[in-house]
Design brief:
The chain is α/β, with parallel strands linked by helices. It is built from 10 helices and 9 strands. Helices cover 36% and strands 15% of the residues. The strands form 2 sheets. It has a 7-stranded parallel β-sheet with strand order 1-2-3-4-5-6-8. It has a two-stranded antiparallel ribbon with strand order 7-9. Helix 3 links the parallel strand 2 and strand 3.
């Protein structure tokens, strides 16, 4: 069952934010450095498709990654962005762009090890697809987890939705059984999983989004990213939007859906994101999402006024 009220460990938030988890774990704030490992994706290289998912930009969702030929250079460039600010003593190396397990094993070993060896990195987070986690890659992750016991390895999986019709529409390229098998493998290896979910995908109702939340409760991920659908220039989603084939969520509509999802989400799942911000030079819609701070403030205010919090209506239904 859930909590009767937000616990003190959430540090004043109405949900279990990543910031609270990191402060509880390390005693201070930690920051992510987004990296580009210069990979591709089976949805782009012709293995499954050449067009990518309909919402994915040409940069493979890595527009905020720092530049550099190698990981060490990117890490140093990322650290330099913080200047002399005392923002904490640890950083998360986030392999963000494209599919970050989609490369030969020796290259993956080199990339991950280089990041884990950095003295200021407390762990790595690897964004990938559940159909890009073959046995040798899983064995590598398990090996590195044991080799660096004082650091963490997280895997981020782009589920986006549990609705089959929407998965086909966005060209996700794999079935739910593939996702479930990957979750089983990662649970078995004790590797925490962060799942990406998009709210506001074309044709999905609030009830269907809530069904994805209930599905994820059963899968028991470590964390979740609740991402507002962004329409980015140059994508097939933008073409559909310009043709008026769907509409994006308004801010109040999004907040209503988001709060409902949080109220039904297990309070044990760490919230890594509740909105997201598309690159301004590519953002077509919704325009209101550009004010990320304003969106977060409105969310927190609305949840306080309504007495809403993560897990308020959660009913335990664990995986077997």
């Amino acid at each position: 069952m859930g909590y009767a009220a937000p616990p003190e460990s959430w540090l004043g938030r109405p949900y279990y934010a990543l910031d609270a988890y990191l402060k509880n774990t390390y005693g201070h704030k930690c920051y992510k450095i987004a990296l580009d490992a210069h990979m591709t994706c089976p949805n782009r290289d012709g293995t499954l498709d050449t067009r990518g998912c309909i919402f994915c930009s040409a940069g493979g969702s890595g527009e905020f990654a720092v530049s550099g030929a190698d990981i060490q250079t990117q890490l140093e460039a990322g650290l330099a962005l913080f200047g002399d600010k005392q923002v904490g003593r640890h950083y998360i190396a986030y392999f963000q762009s494209y599919t970050n397990t989609y490369a030969p094993l020796p290259r993956l070993r080199s990339l991950y090890t280089e990041a884990l060896e950095h003295p200021l990195v407390c762990g790595i987070s690897i964004a990938t697809r559940p159909d890009c986690l073959p046995g040798p890659v899983l064995e590598l992750l398990a090996e590195l987890r044991l080799a660096y016991p004082d650091k963490f390895i997280w895997v981020e999986l782009g589920l986006q939705t549990a609705q089959k019709k929407t998965a086909r529409l966005i060209r996700r390229g794999y079935e739910l059984t593939c996702f479930e098998n990957a979750m089983d493998d990662l649970h078995r290896l004790d590797i925490p999983v962060i799942v990406h979910m998009i709210l506001g995908l074309p044709g999905e109702t609030p009830e269907e989004m809530l069904e994805t939340i209930e599905y994820l409760n059963r899968q028991q991920p470590f964390g979740i990213k609740l991402q507002l659908l962004h329409v980015l220039e140059g994508t097939d989603l933008a073409k559909s939007y310009h043709e008026q084939r769907f509409t994006v969520l308004g801010r109040e509509e999004y907040l209503e859906i988001l709060i409902r999802c949080l109220e039904h989400l297990s309070p044990d799942i760490v919230i890594h994101r509740v909105t997201g911000d598309g690159p301004k030079k590519l953002l077509v819609a919704p325009a209101w999402s550009g004010d990320k701070r304003g969106v977060l403030n409105a969310l927190h205010r609305k949840m306080r006024l309504e007495g809403a919090f993560q897990g308020k209506y959660y009913q335990s239904n664990r995986r077997t």
